[in-house]
Design brief:
Elements lengths: L31 E2 L2 E2 H5 L1 E4 H6 L20 H19 L3 E5 H4 L6 H22 L2 E6 L18 H20 L4 E5 L4 E2 L7 H21 L5 E5 L8 E2 L4 H10 L6 E6 H6 L4 H10 L3 E5 L18 H13 L8 E3 L10 H28 L1 H9 L6 H8 L4 H11 L11 H12 L3
Parallel strand pairs: 3-4, 3-12, 4-5, 6-8, 8-10, 10-11, 11-12
Antiparallel strand pairs: 1-2, 7-9
Helix pairs in contact: 3-5, 5-6, 6-7, 10-11, 11-12
The structure holds D-xylose and calcium ion (CA) (2 copies).
Length: about 450
């Protein structure tokens, strides 16, 4: 088979002193960090939509990158995309991929025809996976592109659109199971509202829960053993998305009894859109036992929308990998690069440069996170800061032994409590992080 990128060979690991543009400086797949190889710790995935389909089109102009893969016929292009994607994954040593159904195969005349054409691509993917050992990290359904979804999918005011969406998710789960995917993602495409003037918020949220319950149960009934994820996002495309952030989603899942069925797929750029740090969202998920998978990217601090840039911020990657290591590492999840090269980075080489930048950033992040943990100063500081809960009155409060009368007496005896734990030392701790990061 002819190559799509004959000018690019397999990207080697050359180490941090290398000046070779098309080489990894930090990602050494077999290097052991925190008890596992980098490859196992990081579980990188290619996003089909950005990498294979995104041509740089924006509100102000048409595409700048050629993503036709040499084909004009949609079915032939869908197959060519598979070949090109597997070549990219092979050359970049990426083991996983993620897709929306419509990234793999577009819509045709009817639901039946669309489903039949998708089957052909899925069969071809299964063959390619078998031949190469590449795997599906997660699949999802694109329930936001076609005009039928203009008012939502699982929250649409139209029962017909709701039914169509359920049928489409059934098919996307079938594809995910057939390809041995270890995850299925629900991102609330247009599940939100533009104005409350036309919205029955209560019914929409009840229906979203019904939608999740029905499709989750279907997946389990056909043998899906992977994880389901919700991917929170506060806004865009709708003004208010129901899956606003991790805390909002946890409240929703608990209300509807879905919290044992779904974990979180956390995207960095969605965290910042919600006014949180990436680490905050990861921490809230981890502390609630709902950490699952990650969409690795970054926004721009000066732009208030979802720019999906390749991640190059080492601090964010370090704190992300700190949370991942503290969560015990990935199980079914991984690091999906939900990221696109900028519109001006339109050449074939830019696909490789951007993945190398993202991959090396997370390799550095992993090394830094491991060093922060083994250095121990941060964790020890936090541990010491909460020492008053380990004995005495703190231990009695936690065990339930102390009554409110006991606490009253305790404080009466003490008379006053001022600064009983000392400084929070934020600046010192930030300097510790710098010290760890820059003595790599
Ligand atoms: C959009 C989302 C989307 C999900 C998958 O903002 O990031 O790409 O990851 O539907
Ligand atoms: Ca995403
Ligand atoms: Ca995004």
């Amino acid at each position: 088979m002819s190559e799509f990128f004959p000018q690019i060979g397999k990207i080697p690991f050359e180490g941090k002193d290398s000046k070779t543009p098309l080489a990894f400086k930090y990602y050494d797949p077999d290097k052991v960090v925190a008890g596992k190889t980098m490859k196992e710790q990081l579980k990188f995935a290619l996003s089909w939509w950005h990498t294979m389909g995104g041509d740089g089109t924006d509100m102000f102009g048409c595409g700048t990158a050629d993503k036709t893969w040499g084909q004009t016929d949609p079915a032939a292009r869908a197959i060519a995309k598979v070949d090109a994607a597997f070549e990219i994954m092979d050359k970049l040593s990426i083991d996983y991929y993620c897709f929306h159904d419509r990234d793999l195969s577009p819509e045709y005349g009817s639901f039946a025809e669309t489903a039949a054409e998708l089957d052909k691509v899925v069969d071809y993917l299964a063959e390619k996976q078998k031949a190469t050992g590449k795997k599906l990290l997660w699949g999802t359904a694109k329930l936001f592109d076609h005009p039928r979804f203009m008012h939502g999918a699982g929250t649409s005011p139209s029962a017909d659109v709701w039914a169509y969406s359920a049928a489409q998710v059934k098919k996307a789960i079938d594809a995910t199971v057939k390809l041995g995917g270890t995850g299925y993602v629900y991102w609330g495409g247009r599940e939100g509202y533009e104005t409350l003037l036309n919205t029955n918020l209560g019914l929409e949220q009840d229906n979203l829960a019904r939608f999740l319950r029905m499709t989750i149960d279907y997946g389990r009934s056909i043998g899906f053993t992977g994880d389901y994820y919700i991917e929170p996002k506060p806004k865009e495309p709708t003004k208010h998305q129901y899956d606003f952030d991790v805390a909002t989603v946890i409240g929703f899942l608990r209300k509807y009894g879905l919290d044992k069925d779904i974990k979180m797929n956390i995207e960095a750029n969605h965290a910042t859109l919600a006014g949180h740090t990436f680490q905050h969202e990861l921490r809230v998920a981890r502390e609630n036992g709902l950490f699952g998978s990650i969409d690795a990217n970054q926004g721009d601090v000066l732009l208030g929308w979802d720019t999906d840039q390749f991640p190059t911020n080492i601090y964010d990657a370090a704190f992300c990998m700190y949370e991942v290591l503290k969560a015990g590492g990935f199980t079914n999840g991984g690091l999906n690069f939900d990221a696109k090269a900028r519109r001006g980075s339109f050449t074939a080489e830019d696909i490789f440069y951007s993945y190398i930048a993202g991959i090396d950033t997370f390799a550095l992040g992993l090394l830094a996170a491991d060093k922060i943990i083994t250095d121990g100063r941060i964790d020890k500081f936090v541990d010491d800061r909460y020492a008053s809960w380990k004995s005495g009155i703190g231990a009695d409060i936690i065990s339930g032994k102390a009554t409110i009368q006991d606490l009253e007496k305790y404080i009466m005896d003490k008379g006053e409590v001022v600064d009983s734990i000392g400084s929070g030392r934020q600046e010192y701790l930030e300097a510790v992080v710098n010290n760890v990061l820059f003595s790599l």
